[in-house]
Amino acid sequence: MDSREEEVDVDTLAITVDSPRRGSNLEKLHLQKIAQQQKKSPPSPAKEFLGKVVGVGLDDWLQQPMSIRLMCLFKSPIYFVLAITTPVVDVVKPKNNWCRPLNCFHCVTAPVFVCFAFGYGLEMIAGVVPIFAVLAAAGSIFGLVVFFTSKDEEPPKYHWAFAYVGFLIGVVWIYVISMEIVVLLQSVGIVFNISDAILGLTILAWGNGLLDFLANLNIARKGFPRMGIAACFGTPCLTLLLGVGIPTLIQLAGTGNVLVLKYSKIITVLFAALAVSLLSSTITNVALRFNTKRFYGAYLLALYFTFLVVAVLVESGFL
């Protein structure tokens, strides 16, 4: 396509306004733009790598308003750390989000990040070599294998394996961030003389449950109320089973001793409120043939606030 055809966009658009065949002219204009886009050469591997780790291309960034630019600058350090450690396979994006240099780099950064996340990064093997160096060397070998068995233009056949790696790294990131939040809340409790139980019942529980509430509400509004209600019970059940089961299993497997539980009054309040809530939900849903009414939602809210007040009073020593 020559330069005259490339410069015809504005004139062609003006002609089609008064043209009786505006549909065909607009279609031709659309086809011309598609042809121009197809003739553009794909970005170089270095430019593609930079766009993946920054989150936005330079050309797109310059076309955005100032507020969007500032937001991109603010989130770019966080995005960079996440992108450099977590592989993402997205079937919607071109090449399933495959980026050869970045995915090769993930073979090194992912195991090293996991090692430091669990506190073993500076541990020494035989008092000579740190663990992170061994993992980095092994990851470099895998990265070279990926580099020499893949192409920049298309993802390899084993690209699906990066999706599982990305899922595991995402779980580790959630673990790291949640641990930092818990430490921050404990610091707030120490400063204001608030017990860990009250912080867990209020701030931590609200922050943990708010996202689940919004997600379940959105699912129900999209026409899947049964899925939303099931998630309301399934999510805390899974959290309780994994949150108590896995640490207990690790503790017993590591020490071999009996795990002694410390009893307190707040445990009685917690289990009593949980039992009343689950029993009420079972009886009410069966009696109403699983057509839940508004009054039951109001009852659950009243039950929660009653439990919260009683729990805070018990933990504070007033009851």
Could you explain the architecture of this structure?
- The chain has 319 residues and is mostly helical.
- It folds into four domains: 3-39, no CATH class; 43-193, no CATH class; 195-258, no CATH class; 262-319.
- It is built from 13 helices and two strands.
- The chain has helices spanning 3-6, 9-18, 22-39, 45-54, 58-63, 66-85, 100-117, 131-148, 160-192, 196-221, 225-255, 265-287, 294-316; strands at residues 124-125, 129-130.
- It has a two-stranded antiparallel ribbon.
Fill in the keyword field for this structure.
2 strands; 75% helix; 319 residues; two-stranded antiparallel sheet
Count of beta strands? 2
Order of strands side by side in the largest beta sheet? 1-2
In percent, how much strand structure appears in the residues?
Answer: under 5%
What's the shape? Answer: globular
- Structural domains: how many: 4
Low-confidence blocks of residues: 1-23
Give the H and E element order.
Answer: HHHHHHHEEHHHHHH
**Helical proportion, percent range:** over 70%
Class from helix and strand fractions: mainly alpha
**If you compute it from the alpha carbons, what radius of gyration comes out, rounded to the nearest whole angstrom?**
28 Å
Output mean pLDDT. 79
Helix run count:
13
How far apart the termini lie comes to 83 Å
Sheet of most strands: 2 strands, antiparallel
